[in-house]
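Cast an eye over this sequence plus tokens and walk me through the fold:

***
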Amino acid sequence: MTEYPPPGQQPPSSPEGGYRSPGQYPPPSSTGGYPPPPPSDYPAPPGEPYRPQGQGRGLAITALVLGILAILSCPTVLGGVLFGLLGLVFGIIAVVKARRGTAGGGVMAWFGLSLATLGIIAGIVIGVVEGMWIADHGGRTYLDCTRQANGDQAKVQQCADQFRSSLENTPTPAR
């Protein structure tokens, strides 16, 4: 039967790999003799020392999503410009924070910023083209007619009917 040494004393070392002498033990670390845990994005369990968290990428993800929405909704003009402006704001904030090192996702923020800018530009261009098309196809006549109606609802309705018929009679380009 193996006898254990009294508390506070080291047993003698044996060549069979049993006990080791005090010089053969690795130096104790601050975590109770174990190496420090690898870094992770999860918080430390209760009772363990604090581990730094990964840097947040929420603003960069928001900028990217808003930039994608700006591109997808630019034919509606208002959606492209609105989502584009929001994506631009979030993208600028995310890029600044990523450059300072207080947030992650710098590349994602740049992509969101780029898509938001393209969404704004496309929305404005589409709005201008649509406005010119409407003006060329009876829009100016409709505005002049409603101004001359001076609030008379029968005349305003007649102006709207004329504008609608001018749009319906517009020839479509041959394909």
